[in-house]
Amino acid sequence: MEILKLKKLFTAILSITIFIAMLMNITGCSFPTSKVQAANLIEGIKANLVSEKNIDEKFIHNTADFSIELFKYSIADKENSLISPLSVMLALAMTANGADNETLAQMEKVLGKDISIEDLNKYLYTYMKKLSNEEKTKLTIANSIWFKENDFMPSKDFLQIIADYYKADIFKAAFDSSTVSDINNWVKSKTNGMIYKILNKIDPEDVMYLINAVAFDAEWETVYEKHNIYKDIFTDINGNKQKAEFMMSEENFYIEDKNAIGFIKPYVKKHYSFVAILPDENISVNEYVKTLTGEKFINLIKDAKITLVHAYLPKFKYNYEINLNSTLESLGMKEAFSPEKANFTKLGTSSVGNIFISEVLHKTFISVDEKGTKAGAVTSVNMTSTAMPVNPKIVKLDRPFVYAIIDNKTNLPIFIGIVMSIKD
Asked: What domains are there in the chain, each with its CATH number?
């Protein structure tokens, strides 16, 4: 009975982060979307010119730590996993601008260690501007806030910060079935039709949704032809033998540490790269991930050796969904989820009770294959090149491995995951 009273007494923020990494180009496709009916308040808010903050070693180091720690706590047992640290950080940073006192202090420490939310806003604003979004290497970032029109009044200062630094759409809505349709339509539009539905219903206690969508769509720098693809066996986390299609290529960057080897495969125009890390056979992929730190991950990429690598990458595709509440609480963000202790007074005022975060839901999808947008741009890959060393390194991803999609300027993982099984 006490639980039912709490449900009525307190309201909730539902923060949803969505990531879709499509490594095959789909920009030529057309996805019909319905117009959002809710009132977009951003049309009445003029974004101010704000100062940028140089992307320095402090931001890179702290963001790498957050990314890897989030990843370590988010891995599913014996299942494929994938998160976008950037997406999670953006959704939570927007939320943190409405927090105060100990709730804010905990969120700041988890997201940026000793970086204040004011500085984090500037860092993220600068970082989003510098991330490349060009033809053939599209990284699309979209933010939105939805609040219940009768039960919640957002702070003007909060809305101004979100407009200035995060360029978010801000919607006032009835939080009924029409709002469910509006949110799903917004998500469908921002993910180019790859996710058609994120919500089934809205709980009566919910007063605000903060949504971040990150969509990645890029061609390989050198795409694969049919003679570069062959069938072989992938041994999954349980030791089962699975039929898989492997894509062969010659790469130029080899990575290794005392427990793993791997390669770096660039996307066209070299703004982003795919990083593959294969733990040694005497250490499980889970055990290897436990040894990772932000610094170790960054240095692994920085210390890559320029040498010929014969790389064997299996095709794979999967969805992943995780509730990040316990993960974030384990990292130190506890008060934000407490109905009694959460302090989001800078967010706005609620007529029905205290505001706390009820759920941080992270949904991802990835598809890795050989496809590109234009057949005329395909370059054949030969495994008999004589321009590189006679004894190439060989990295065959035929057992569970770690992978990431990184921004080449900072080496930060925009997306990071584990392949435990090739089966969809």
From this structure: 2-218+318-366 (3.30.497.10), 226-314+383-419 (2.30.39.10)
